[in-house]
Amino acid sequence: MQLPQLARQIDAFYLEMGETFSQAQARANLNCLPNCGRCCTTPEIEASLWEMLPMAYAIDRQGRSEEILNELLATQGPTCWAYQAKGEEKGSGQCRQYADRPTVCREFGVAGLRDKNGGIRLSVCKYIREENPQQTVLAENTIAQWAPPIMNEWVMRLMQLHPSILHERRPINLALAEALNKVLLYKGLNYS
């Protein structure tokens, strides 16, 4: 499969995934907090280069691939490159590449997880949980009625697009740098 075709398939998958998880948050009445980007400043956030292909292609369409790649290689900090802070408060900001965000960003907030007995339990961001404790308990108690998307099932669907799509996960900025590198290499090999 050609690299641009894979990126388009991942992008289409991400569109469906984003809509599904957003609708579930709305049904549970548990949405991400306004201007909250605390998860974007967490060094443990990882992705694979394949998951970052849609973002890398979006950056390339903007004509900024080399610029952003150099920026990423020069400053490997814990904050996601796509995160744009607002003001002085840590974690207050937004994603400047929201439409192209990877799997981890789409699943975060409110989702379902299967427990060892096959039941569904709710996974809720700790900040959403702290801000809306009664609504979180209500959502947990009525989980069968509003049926959150199950993270594991979406991951399995994603893996059908490319067998190693979730392999070799690394810090999100490094994964983006590798995706940009791959896009530039592909363009160089196919356009020269």
Backbone shape: globular
**What number is the mean pLDDT?**
90
Quaternary organisation of the protein chains: single chain
Number of E-state strands = 6
What is Rg? 17 Å
Distance between the terminal alpha carbons, to the nearest Å?
20 Å
Strand order in the sheet with the most strands? 1-6
For the biggest sheet, the summary is:
2 strands, antiparallel
Can you characterise this structure?
- With 192 residues, the protein is mainly α.
- It has helices at 3-28, 53-61, 65-74, 103-107, 126-131, 133-141, 143-146, 151-159, 172-191, and strands spanning 46-47, 83-85, 93-95, 110-114, 120-124, 170-171.
- A two-stranded antiparallel ribbon has the order 1-6. Strands 2-3 form a two-stranded antiparallel ribbon.
- Helix 2 (53-61) packs across helix 9 (172-191) and helix 3 packs antiparallel against helix 9.
- The protein starts with a helix and ends with a helix.
Offer a few descriptive terms:
two-stranded antiparallel sheet, 9 helices, 6 strands, 51% helix
